[in-house]
Write the structure tokens for this entry.
Amino acid sequence: MIKKVLVANRGEIAVRVIRSCKEMGIKTVAVYSDADRTSQHVLHADEAYHIGPSPSLESYLNIDKIIQVAKESGADAVHPGYGFLSENTKFSDRCKLEGIKFVGPSAYSIANMGDKITARKTMIAAGVPVVPGTVDMVHSEEEALKTIEEIGLPVMIKASAGGGGKGMRLIKKAEEVTSGLRAARSEAKAAFNDDSVYIEKYIESPHHIEFQVLADSHGNAIHLFERECSVQRRHQKIIEETPSPILTHEKRMEMGAHAVAAAKAVNYEGAGTIEFIVDNDLNYYFLEMNTRLQVEHPITEMVVGVDLVKEQINIANGLPLTLKQDELTQTGHAIECRIYAEDPDNNFMPAPGQVTHIETPSGLGVRVDGYIYEGFVIPMYYDPLIAKLVVWGSTREESIQRTLRALHEFKVTGVKNNVRFLERIALADDFVKGNYNTHFIEDNFDFLMGGKEQNMQDDDVVSIAAFVEYLDRIGELKPKYEPATALNSWQKLKRARSARNARF
Ligand code: ADP
Ligand code: ADP
Ligand code: MG
């Protein structure tokens, strides 16, 4: 049985994993780069080891160094989180070789699903529907044009090694094939060191709906229902919810069965996600499998009532699943908002830097998975995620109201962030009606970017008004005292107050 886990990751997901280990009585080992010396994952773990300079290649992706720390600290297992080494077959193999348990699937499953071309072939053989397109990699423009003749425009050129929305190009006209191929290839080469690409039909106005699966080493596999992930920018998710507002019970069960079949087709072991793309008539197609814990896993935990990290560890321990498919239900509704240090006014450019003040929401049905505290410098080297706000409600309506309430409580200063942008999403008519697809953000862009004058929150306005009145009453509001000056002194007062609070 696993007694000590090295968490080969950073930030919120490392903290998340450490929390479950603690509850299971398992010791934890953190690793950190130069930029992360004071990160919360270091503070939460039982032990912490410095593994190198800030760039991931020299730290969180340094297999030799991480294995060395695992041995030095006596860790008997490694949890890779998501990103970094989580889908790296060399790492999973190396752990096995060194007698360290890898909390995740075998190198065989990762390799079969990590490469999208191979995965598509495997799914076709397993009877799981895939998006119409090429079976093999596309080598030339001629091949690409031939495929386009067969399946028709528009199409997507996609990197076989793709992930995180990278290496993907939409082709609407035949003239765009040359430049599209070149762009997808070079992006894939730079991001994944592999420039193989393939072509699939572009599904118009689709939904991205994924299924959580769990499979043990005894041949049992189940699904834990879906997550609706269609609120995306640049093919990257920012809000996820479950249940999906568009699925019927029958469709959910049918897709779930296909998700389980997909996992079984690669002898999957552990927690994984089968992503589907779904059209307006609820036809669905396999997109890819993520052979790891997903960023958005908490919404499943909230409605199904399981701890997915504990399930992962039990599976790694060789225990059979105790959850039974026909005993699982979805209770209520959950929404996750990804809170990023980024600038919505500037094409969502990452905006790392020092967080001067942070106030996270709490109260009934609110969970915040984060790792940032006042004064922490969000490094420029990694994903600028500040926290994940996860909210549970008994109905979808309540869940949306609670999301708005919690976003309102969420205060981050010092770095640009998308809290107000997320608030606008939760207010948008199409979102509230559950009437949205992956084009939601572009379709509603004006509304989402609007309301700047309302960005100043109601309670701020009330406080300013009260302060101005107060100044007026004590006779300080001289004619030269413009409203802007009043606002300025109010802000100073507020900063002084929060600095004072911080000291207690
Ligand atoms: P999710 O589906 O949970 O949103 P993503 O697919 O966006 O996850 O990826 C999560 C993290 O893993 C991101 O930081 C992304 O850049 C990284 N990632 C995903 N796939 C790969 C890959 N094949 N190679 C390198 N990094 C990847
Ligand atoms: P990644 O590995 O980067 O996560 P995916 O294959 O999962 O890539 O696709 C990410 C997103 O890109 C999808 O959620 C969807 O919004 C869009 N997308 C991918 N393939 C298609 C397609 N064939 N038609 C329309 N949109 C697509
Ligand atoms: Mg994906």
